[in-house]
């Protein structure tokens, strides 16, 4: 057993090897140290815009194409700037909640915006 290997979740020294994974009996966290070492430089998963830039609450974004507003004849034109977005965990794919001037509160998909 590797004496220097500790659980990355809780820091426990009682982790044990099981197949390809290490398991912590105290917090039940499972991890692969080889994969974790390769992913150290990779950014954490999160909401990204159409060009792969990470988004955060409070960011400003621009719409990249004309979007029809469902249930209305309104259209959000490409190039519209949206300030102070909020990221949500919507199941329908609309993961940005925002307020657009002239339209009001609505949800957008991150694949149709770019970070401003």
TrEMBL record:
InterPro entries: YjdM (IPR004624), YjdM_C (IPR013988), YjdM_N (IPR013987)
Chain ranges of the Protein YjdM N-terminal domain: 6-32
Pfam families in the cross-refs: YjdM, Zn_Ribbon_YjdM
SUPFAM superfamilies: Prokaryotic SH3-related domain (SSF82057), Zinc beta-ribbon (SSF57783)
Chain ranges of the Protein YjdM C-terminal domain: 47-116
Matching PANTHER family: PROTEIN YJDM, PROTEIN YJDM-RELATED
Family named by the database record: Belongs to the YjdM family.
Protein name: PhnA protein
Source organism of this protein record: Rhodospirillum rubrum (strain ATCC 11170 / ATH 1.1.1 / DSM 467 / LMG 4362 / NCIMB 8255 / S1)
